[in-house]
Amino acid sequence: MAKKRATSGHTAGSPEPPTSPLRAAIPPPPPTESPDPVTVSNPYNANDLKVACDDALKRYIARPDTSFSTVNRHTDVRLALGWTSVLVAAVTAGWGYKVEFEKAKTGLWIGFILSVFLVPRRSSLLTVVVPGT
Hints:
By secondary structure, the protein is mainly alpha-helical. Among the domains are: 37-69; 73-129. The protein contains 3 helices and no strands. It has helices at 46-61, 73-98, 101-129. Helix 2 runs antiparallel to helix 3. It starts with 45 loop residues before the first helix and ends with a helix.
């Protein structure tokens, strides 16, 4: 069987890769144009306008030519406090289910005190992190 020679014009010794319209680099869009225009189905609906503005602002901030960076510390702390309170409630419920009530009172009180401490901290975190709210 005879081998067919590649017709792309690229030989083993040539330094440049074959040019193909499928492998051409696509230039990024200019920074002044947004890739997707902001569309609102009902301009009289405040919720649709808010979501459209949030999406446009998120797209603007995420551009590489801006100096904004995302900080997720507030979300991470709220999630950690929320999941900790869920784990405390689950452990307390499991302890109360497995052990007699009179023997489990100490553990139940500890779980109750931890829940009373954790839930308001999670709820009031926004007022501490963002003053004036």
